[in-house]
Design a protein that fits this description.
This protein has helices spanning about 35-40, 70-85, 100, 155-180, and strands spanning about 10-20, 25-35, 55-60, 105-110. It is of the alpha+beta class.
Length: about 180
């Protein structure tokens, strides 16, 4: 995604033909791929560079299902969209917010850029019991990876790939969860 410089990307170790007959000692041959090899295979360095790359992303979800769309589905996908864009540490084991997953290097917005009111903002203040505001502690980012404030950068084709992947995976996941 271009969130860190190439020299900070660790080597990737790819296992081939792992022997899992003894789970206490799994053996396999490993092949190491370096970032320099990836750059060479892709035809050169990334443009824009990590310092100039996109740091703010927007995600839209289109839900398709074979049953009528109901309040439960609306609530589920609304909460999913909200949890993806939070800057708080993940709760539980299932979904890491984008900000946390990128080490605090990028943000994600799932709000539609049209005048649709936020359904949670319409709840009268008397209907909600006050709760303390949790302190948001961003993940530690080494100073070597700190980047200047985001500037407008051209939209990367990767952004479209991410959206396409989400559009293909979420309906299948929803269908699978519904059947269980």
């Amino acid at each position: 995604m271009g969130l860190i410089p190439p020299e900070e990307v660790p080597d990737i170790h790819i296992l081939s033909k792992p022997d899992t007959t003894d789970l206490a000692r799994i053996s396999a041959t490993a092949r190491t791929v370096t970032m320099d090899q990836i750059i060479a295979a892709e035809g050169g360095a990334r443009y824009p560079t990590y310092a100039e790359s996109q740091k703010e992303f927007t995600l839209a979800m289109i839900v398709t299902q074979d049953l009528p769309y109901n309040d439960a589905a609306y609530a589920y996908f609304s909460l999913l969209a909200r949890s993806l864009q939070t800057t708080e540490a993940p709760e539980g084991c299932c979904l890491a917010p984008f900000y946390w997953a990128t080490g605090g290097r990028a943000t994600l917005s799932t709000l539609l850029p049209v005048g649709i009111p936020d359904p949670l903002a319409e709840v009268p203040a008397t209907a909600v019991s006050p709760s303390p505001t949790p302190e948001v502690i961003p993940p530690e980012i080494p100073t070597a990876t700190a980047v200047p404030a985001a500037t407008e950068a051209p939209v990367s084709p990767l952004c479209g790939s991410i959206i396409l992947a989400v559009l293909l995976v979420l309906p299948a996941l929803w269908s699978s969860l519904r059947r269980q």
